[in-house]
Design goal:
Blueprint lengths: L1 E6 L7 H9 L1 H11 L4 E4 L2 E4 L2 E7 L2 E6 L12 H19 L9 H4 L9 H19 L4 E9 L5 E2 L1 H4 L8 E9 L3 H14 L5 H13 L26 H14 L2 E2 L4 E9 H15 L1 H5 L8 E4 L4 E4 L5 E4 L3 E5 L3 E8 L15 H13 L4 E7 L21 E2 L5 E7 L9 H20 L1
Parallel strand pairs: 1-5, 15-16, 16-18
Antiparallel strand pairs: 2-3, 4-5, 4-10, 6-8, 7-8, 9-10, 11-14, 12-13, 14-15, 17-18
Helix pairs in contact: 5-8, 7-8, 7-9
């Protein structure tokens, strides 16, 4: 299977990859129609991606879309530098995905990925299979299943309502529970691994999936419907399997993307980068709040992600919802800080670094409606802004906040997600320290 790599809002760099996408243009248009989202659009004799990242397979071609944040001008770069940048973009995207609610990868499992692994699809399958195999070896799931059948002896309890209807009582209709591995969780996992094993190109992944299937030898292989996931109830005995069931659902939902009329089948696992950036920042702040907020005025605040909903217009009826991305509250009531994440690349050559006037209007509405005196517009850092290591991440003139009025302050800031492999402890610590500097500065001003 051929892998084509491109970045958001761009076409592939290699001419042969451009030609390949051009040949697939009609199929990609139909994918846009089925998903009801503009994932691809035509561009100068080829096809370019929009604001979605992830993977999509069409026939024997896997298209891998990476964040625009890691895109550069490759004219002066050799093939080795390009491949290295693709690897870094893939690893950091996987790290960000480990914080998202849709694809709950274990952060610890990311460290097992080989550094040269740059195929996003194969990497996700590897993390799924490797962690699942370890879980099965540690805690293979067996559940008590209710069975009802006619037996020659009494087992469990006799179902009298069914027994008395029998014309001949040579057998007894019983209802009983039996400890079995053939339960819904194992059926879903076996079916998912069966489908994945026919799609992966990595021998390592194929072997991992075959090992899992051998463990599930006593489990019935049957097609799984999305409705079957609703039948599962998690508790402390089976909670280890929840991430794998959620990921299986994501795999199966996206494998069902198909056009029956032309026998065209495809698979997609795509994420809106705007949502992913917002979720990553919010969940990262929650997880590392002690290191980031410990010595600031926000150290005792609760962090809420898109939970505080109000309406811009209250009367005569509620209209125009206001849902801030991240809210810091004190005592559950007083809003100390609002962060609005914007996945846009800024440029120091543009007025106000290219910050949109619409973004300013939006956070102004937040400040007034929620009566919050400190608002942060947070963007990803890029080389076009300047050297991030020399400052705190604030882009305001002279590092002073903008003021809507005497009480309300606006901070325009960036966060550096490009300082190497974020799985590395040193780079991760650098990210925490940079965010700590930023919040310390906001707390002071």
């Amino acid at each position: 299977m051929k892998t084509v790599t491109l970045f958001e809002y761009s076409a592939p760099e290699r001419p042969e990859d451009r030609d390949r996408l051009k040949k697939l243009e009609n199929r990609l248009r139909r994918i846009n129609k089925v998903t009801k989202a503009t994932i691809f659009e035509p561009s100068w004799g080829t096809v370019k991606a929009r604001n979605y990242v992830g993977i999509i397979t069409v026939g024997k071609t896997t298209i891998q879309i990476l964040p625009k944040l890691y895109r550069k001008d490759w004219e002066d770069e050799d093939q080795k530098s390009y491949d290295k940048k693709v690897e870094e973009a893939t690893r950091n995207l996987l790290f960000m995905l480990s914080f998202t609610k849709r694809l709950k990868l274990k952060e610890a499992g990311l460290s097992r990925l080989k550094k040269e692994r740059s195929d996003l699809y194969e990497s996700i399958v590897y993390l799924f299979a490797k962690n699942l195999l370890e879980t099965l070896k540690r805690n293979y799931r067996r559940d008590y299943e209710r069975r009802t059948e006619d037996l020659r002896f009494v087992k469990g309890k006799v179902v009298l309502s069914r027994q008395i209807r029998k014309p001949v009582h040579d057998r007894i209709h019983c209802s009983y529970f039996e400890l079995s591995e053939d339960n819904m969780i194992n059926r879903i996992l076996k079916y998912t691994c069966h489908l994945l094993s026919s799609r992966v190109k990595s021998r390592e992944n194929w072997l991992l999936l075959q090992n899992i299937l051998s463990i599930f030898d006593g489990v019935t292989l049957v097609p799984v419907r999305i409705l079957d996931f609703e039948k599962i109830r998690f508790n402390r005995l089976n909670e280890d399997y929840e991430p794998f069931i959620n990921l299986s659902r994501l795999f199966l939902e996206n494998m069902s993307l198909e056009l029956q009329s032309s026998q065209f089948r495809t698979f997609s696992l795509l994420f809106d980068m705007n949502v992913l950036f917002e979720e990553f920042i919010g969940e990262f702040l929650r997880k590392h709040r002690g290191d980031i907020l410990g010595d600031t005025e926000f150290s005792n605040c609760q962090i809420h992600l898109q939970t505080k909903r109000r309406w811009l217009i209250e009367r005569p009826k509620h209209s125009f919802r206001l849902i801030p991305d991240i809210i810091f509250t004190e005592d559950g009531k007083n809003i100390k800080l609002i962060i609005d994440t914007k996945y846009k690349i800024l440029d120091s050559c543009k007025p106000y670094f290219g910050v949109s006037q619409d973004d300013i209007y939006q956070v102004f509405a937040y400040s007034k409606k929620f009566k919050c005196s400190k608002i942060v517009l947070l963007y990803p850092w890029d080389e076009r802004i300047g050297d991030h290591s020399k400052g705190t991440g604030l882009l305001n003139s002279d590092h002073l906040p903008y003021k809507f009025d005497d009480q309300t302050k606006l901070y325009i800031a960036t966060v550096d997600l490009k300082s190497g492999d974020l799985r590395d402890k040193n780079n991760l610590e650098k990210l925490r320290k940079n965010l700590n500097k930023l919040f310390c500065k906001i707390s002071e001003l």
